[in-house]
Amino acid sequence: FRLALIQLHVSAVKSDNLQRACGLVREASAKGAKLVALPECFNSPYGTQYFKEYAEKIPGESTQKLSEVAKECSVYLIGGSIPEEDGGKLYNTCTVFGPDGALLAKHRKVHLFDINVPGKIQFKESETLSPGNSFSMFDTPYCKVGLGICYDMRFAEMAQIYGQKGCQLLIYPGAFNMTTGPAHWELLQRGRAVDNQLYVATVSPARDEKASYVAWGHSTVVNPWGEVIAKAGAEETVVYTDIDLKKLAEIRQQIPILSQKRCDLYGVEMKK
């Protein structure tokens, strides 16, 4: 099946972001994509100072438009993420809609991005955001898909549990920056893919040098062998790739690590 990653240029005008995102979903559908994914914070600039201003309830304006365009185009739409307000708290939340427009999954970013690399970048999502507390998976006729958002990708245990639960594709809307992006963006994706013998796709906003937070870009798809099979540059674009589940099955048969794990010695478990 064909997967499309929309590396969107995000502006400060929410209505423009929504309109352009929906237009690119239509374009991807016309080119045969069955799963279409948007980037982290696709409807607003990324930054703790923006989350409250742009936050919405779910359902709300942005998710309603995602539902409508998923149904119009008959695609599975991974709606990147938006700032969500619920019960007085703010979350970084990804919604997924099916070809009938129904909400299939809602993933709140589990691991908040609180880092300090002296002289390069300091960021603290927990100043404004609350963490999600659950794994998020959804089924398609093609395969089961697991969701994470950006910083979630650094936590190998999360990906391992998705693999244990039968996911063959992991999708991470994310916005790595100009410090962590060159160093770890591709490396982490390849690690998660080869460790668990599954496909990993990441969807970044396009790079905007004038933004307060400059995203690395380079939306990427990695196969279960750890090979990069599709990759964007820094500009707004749509990345297409065909996901071959026969290749996944072959790799798991050739190197059967999943059946060779020493569960008598160690294990990773999902607690809730």
Automatic annotation (TrEMBL):
<dbReference type="GO" id="GO:0006107">
    <property type="term" value="P:oxaloacetate metabolic process"/>
</dbReference>
<protein>
    <recommendedName>
        <fullName>omega-amidase</fullName>
        <ecNumber>3.5.1.3</ecNumber>
    </recommendedName>
</protein>
<keyword id="KW-0378">Hydrolase</keyword>
<dbReference type="InterPro" id="IPR036526">
    <property type="entry name" value="C-N_Hydrolase_sf"/>
</dbReference>
<comment type="similarity">
    <text>Belongs to the carbon-nitrogen hydrolase superfamily. NIT1/NIT2 family.</text>
</comment>
<dbReference type="InterPro" id="IPR003010">
    <property type="entry name" value="C-N_Hydrolase"/>
</dbReference>
<dbReference type="GO" id="GO:0005739">
    <property type="term" value="C:mitochondrion"/>
</dbReference>
<dbReference type="GO" id="GO:0050152">
    <property type="term" value="F:omega-amidase activity"/>
</dbReference>
<feature type="domain" description="CN hydrolase">
    <location>
        <begin position="1"/>
        <end position="245"/>
    </location>
</feature>
<dbReference type="InterPro" id="IPR045254">
    <property type="entry name" value="Nit1/2_C-N_Hydrolase"/>
</dbReference>
<dbReference type="GO" id="GO:0006541">
    <property type="term" value="P:glutamine metabolic process"/>
</dbReference>
<dbReference type="GO" id="GO:0006528">
    <property type="term" value="P:asparagine metabolic process"/>
</dbReference>
<dbReference type="Pfam" id="PF00795">
    <property type="entry name" value="CN_hydrolase"/>
</dbReference>
